What does this fold into?
Amino acid sequence: MAMVKNERLLRRHRPLQLLCRLREQILRELGFRDIFKKVKDEENAKAITLIENVVDLNDAIEDEGKRVENLIRGIFAGNICDLGSAQLLWCRPLKEKFS
It folds into this structure.
């Protein structure tokens, strides 16, 4: 059954997404619910301290299109860096821009 499910995933998702999903599936099957919970909690606590400044900076952008673009770029930057790549050095400029 799992093989059929995995083949469907392979057809619908890109390889990196598939690997992430398979990793999560295997960890859950082995009893690991969220091995990154501690790190996520720590990063969320740091992010909470920055949110007011980020919102103020975004609200200060007068052009609505640029404001929406800034929001979307921030969302993508956060999600890309959250993938957990071993080579996150290229993310530093993204994090600095949106911090």
